[in-house]
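Protocol step 4 of 5: obtain the predicted structure for the target chain.
Materials: sequence only (see below). No template structures provided, no constraints applied. The aim of this step is simply to have a reference model before the mutagenesis design in step 5. Sequence pasted as it appears in the construct record:
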Amino acid sequence: MAFDSNLAWLTGAGGLIGNYLVRTAPEFAPAWRVRGLTRAQLDLCDFAAVRRAFREEPPQLIIHCAAMSRSPDCQANPELARRINCEATAVLAELAKDVALVFFSSDLVFDGRKGNYVETDPLGPLSVYAETKVAAERVVLANPRHTVIRTSLNGGASLAGDRGFNEQMRLAWQAGRALKFFTDEFRSPIPAVVTARATWELANSNQTGLFHLAGGQRLSRFQIGQLVAARWPQLNPKLEAALTKDYPGAPRPADSSLNCAKAQKQLSFPLPGLTEWLAAHPDEPF
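Step 4 output (structure tokens):
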């Protein structure tokens, strides 16, 4: 099979991270001819269609961003979550057995008892979404050519206007709703444009294996809400403090913050904390 040495498939191109990867490719990955794939262009759950598309135009790199990523949706429909997050990933990993594959996973694969997680820490998924990511990771990492990137909350401006955590907050405040934010749940939020740049750097330097890629600042959900609210004072945003014990859904990790030292060693720039990045980019959509 003759591979196009410059062709990169990018699944989930209509999502937040996927769209930033497409948009930043001319700057950060000019050697690649990027084919952004949305669900309308290629349904990853139609495995025959995926195999046919791969045969017709085989890539040298697949960056797999597409996922069923909202945890409540996964809890409500675990069978669909496994088909999208596990089975579709397995098909792509099989097709890409001789080429590079980058798969996006999540900080939620940890149980949250520790925080500041490194790549070698034991996993402890608490939700269906997290379980599907753990299962998919194992499939991807079975091939030494392949890469898993665990990331955290990503923010920015999406095509749909509701994919970033910041966009969901803004939409609620525009509707006049007050939002509850956990003071006892901690994450490592990162702008999607930073995730995209770092991902391209890792892919371009043929880094394989497992990497944590998130913001350089551990923040509670409430602190994150405060930072985004300060960006939109004209909306008169309403924030209420809450505790995870009062959340009615699946258990939530208390502290899934990530230690990104391994990835940082491979990057040409420091991974910023959200507070720092927002201050340095007052005009960026967030």
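Step 4 remarks: The longest helix spans residues 78-95. The chain has a mean pLDDT of 95.
Proceed to step 5.
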